[in-house]
Design brief:
The protein is mostly helical. It folds into two domains: 1-52; 54-224, no CATH class. It is 66% helix and 0% strand. The chain has helices spanning 2-7, 9-39, 47-51, 54-80, 100-103, 115-118, 122-128, 130-160, 168-172, 175-201. α4 runs antiparallel to α8 and α4 packs across α10 (175-201). It is elongated, with a radius of gyration of 23 Å. It starts with a helix and ends in a 23-residue tail after the last helix. 15% of the residues are buried.
């Protein structure tokens, strides 16, 4: 058990704090919603009803979709785009999908390489792009769920104010939808871009996200 925890400590750590954050957000969001309902002279809702409400759904999904968009873009962009001096970038002369030899696929696969890396045709093509594709699919799904939940939550407010609800397409072009969306996207883009640039000149000893402390500022990717 000790070996398992050590070998999977990164996933266990982030999985644990993720669950704690979701639980904390659930209780905080439930309390906030009930405070608003009571202030408006309405009955508070149970925790179970809150968990199935559009308010909870949109709050969760609007964060998930921006996070997975960030990683999907980063995975695809770093295939072709480089940043001199950043450990978040490939070496400057390796932009692109690289050769089969560099990627250890096909006849260059090792004995312990995944079977799909040794395969030919469609299987290898799918596996070669599986990380970015899965990130992109999760983004699209969470974005879609966010748009559905957001429309329901928005229309509940519209009806409470005796205003006409919006259709789904109407909500997709509304300021409420794009305000929710862009406020998350801009923060993710800033975080990724600043990490790539800060890591050129700053160091974190022992972290794989940083160059070795003594590496020159111009060292890019795995160059030391």
């Amino acid at each position: 058990m000790g070996t398992f925890i050590r070998n999977n400590s990164l996933a266990l750590f982030f999985g644990s704090i993720f669950l704690l954050a979701v639980v904390g957000q659930t209780f905080a969001g439930h309390a906030e919603l009930n405070n608003m309902l009571v202030a408006s002279g309405l009955e508070p809702v149970s925790l179970g009803r809150y968990l199935t409400s559009s308010d909870f759904g949109v709050e969760i999904m609007e964060n998930w979709q921006s996070e997975y968009l960030q990683f999907a873009l980063y995975v695809f962009a770093t295939v072709w785009l480089v940043q001199q001096g950043s450990p978040e970038s490939k070496p400057l002369d390796q932009a692109g999908t690289e050769s089969d030899k560099d990627q250890k696929v096909g006849e260059h696969a090792q004995e312990d390489s995944p079977s799909w890396a040794r395969a030919r045709g469609l299987r290898r093509a799918i596996f070669s792009r599986s990380l970015g594709t899965v990130m992109l699919l999760i983004f699209v799904l969470s974005w879609f769920v966010m748009s559905l939940s957001g429309r329901v939550a928005y229309n509940e407010e519209q009806l409470a104010d005796l205003q006409a609800p919006l259709t789904y397409l109407g909500y997709l072009t509304s300021a409420d939808f794009w305000g929710r969306t862009l406020q998350n996207w801009q923060s993710e883009f800033l975080a990724v871009g600043s990490m790539a640039v800060f890591a050129i000149y700053l160091r974190q000893r022992g972290s794989p996200e940083s160059k070795p402390v003594g590496a020159p500022h111009s060292a890019t990717g795995t160059e030391n």
